[in-house]
Structures are given as C-alpha cells and as structure tokens.
C-alpha cells in the first residue's frame, strides 16, 4: 500500500466554461472528465493539483448564504502561480494563454534572482504567474 498523498482542489468561479477551458488548456492543464459536469470543469495540473472551474450558480452552492463570489474582474482574492521546467517555457505558455483570451503581463513581477516569471490574467480576471525557478523550487519540497 502506498502512502497517502494529499490533493488540492482550487475552486474558481468562471463566467463561461468554454472560454475558461481554452485558457486553462493553454496554461497546460488537462480536463478530468470524471470530476466535470455541465456546470463544472475539473482541470488537472498534476495528479495532486486541480482547479474546479464553476459557473457562478454552482460556485455559490459551496458558499455560506451570507457570502457572494469574488470575481477577478471586480477585485482580487488571490494570485496563483505555476512553475515550468525551463526558462523559455514561461514565454511559450504565456503566448498560448494570450491566444486563448488571456491578458499578458497585467502586473510586473518583482525581480527573482536566478529565476524568471511573468503574469497573465485569465478570461475571468484571475491573476496567474508562470515562473521558472532556476532550481529554487526544489527547495520548497
């Protein structure tokens, strides 16, 4: 029997699943049909990390009645970052994201000695960073 490995699911509200799917596929994620439905798309980044993209009415069912979803268009609750294997992959991934409706470089990232990163805003206004850590990311595990 193998040791338990925790999995993280980040839930995000999206205005259009179709547009969001294009963007997140460009970001390198793959749709997991097992956890997807008509109003939700599960997008896997790795076996342990997935996004649950939900239409607003579905997302609301996960919130207390007193709360409303925060969308990236109105305000920002978080900034998400994924790492890539090679420096040149940062620009390659961002080009694909732009082709899928993303807005490139909405923010200028701080200097990252030994690394390289850029930002992209998805079609719903959620901010993402794509970073090459130059080996520094290995220090996090």
Give a structural overview:
It is a single chain. The strands form two sheets. A four-stranded mixed sheet has the order 1-4-3-2. A four-stranded mixed sheet has the order 5-8-7-6, covered by helices on one side. A hairpin with a 2-residue loop joins strand 3 (40-46) and strand 4 (49-54). The model has no long low-confidence stretch (mean pLDDT 90). Helix 1 packs antiparallel against helix 3. The longest helix is centred in the middle third of the chain and has 13 residues, at 87-99. The chain has helices at residues 17-26, 56-60, 87-99; strands at residues 8-13, 30-37, 40-46, 49-54, 79-83, 103-104, 116-121, 127-132. The chain has one domain: 2,3-Dihydroxybiphenyl 1,2-Dioxygenase, domain 1, CATH 3.10.180. With 141 residues, it is of the alpha/beta class. The chain is built from three helices and eight strands, in the order E-H-E-E-E-H-E-H-E-E-E. 20% of the residues lie in helices and 33% in strands. Residues 5-133 form the VOC domain. This is Glyoxalase/bleomycin resistance protein/dioxygenase. Keywords: Dioxygenase, Oxidoreductase.
């Amino acid at each position: 029997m193998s040791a338990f490995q925790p999995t993280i699911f980040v839930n995000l509200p999206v205005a259009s699943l179709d547009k969001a799917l294009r963007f997140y596929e460009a970001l390198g994620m793959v749709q997991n049909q097992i956890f997807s439905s008509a109003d939700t798309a599960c997008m896997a980044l790795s076996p342990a990390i997935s996004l649950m993209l939900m239409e607003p009415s579905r997302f609301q069912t996960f919130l207390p009645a007193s709360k409303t979803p925060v969308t990236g268009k109105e305000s920002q609750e978080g900034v998400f970052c994924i790492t890539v294997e090679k420096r040149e992959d940062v620009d390659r991934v961002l080009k694909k994201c732009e082709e899928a409706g993303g807005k490139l470089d909405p923010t200028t990232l701080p200097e990252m000695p030994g690394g390289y990163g850029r930002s992209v805003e998805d079609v719903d206004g959620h901010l993402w960073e794509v970073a090459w850590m130059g080996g520094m990311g290995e220090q996090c595990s």
